[in-house]
Specification:
globular, CdiI immunity protein domain-containing protein
């Protein structure tokens, strides 16, 4: 998977979760876990540093719960991370 494909997959995961998320979902669906949703997105990143993983975790949370406010920051972070992934995983 290319770095661009990886970034696209992450964005797709976040977009689906943002579309499905609404305040109060935890009350309506006690089995729902925002942390599990974020982990699902993190799994698409592959090998990144712990610092980057935590940064992305916070961005994913904001992008899922308030996509309008966070989408540009998430996109920018993925583009920046794309360079890190390219350096670590030449294809």
């Amino acid at each position: 998977m290319s770095d661009r494909e990886r970034a696209d997959a992450v964005l797709e995961h976040v977009a689906v979760l943002a579309f499905l998320y609404y305040p109060g979902i935890e009350v309506d669906d006690p089995s729902y876990s925002l942390a599990d949703d974020i982990d699902w997105c993190l799994a698409r990143l592959g090998d990144v540093t712990d610092v980057e993983r935590e940064r992305m975790r916070a961005l994913f949370e904001r992008a899922i719960t308030d996509p309008t406010a966070a989408r540009e920051e998430l996109f920018t972070a993925l583009v920046e991370l794309d360079g890190v992934l390219a350096a670590d995983h030449p294809e």
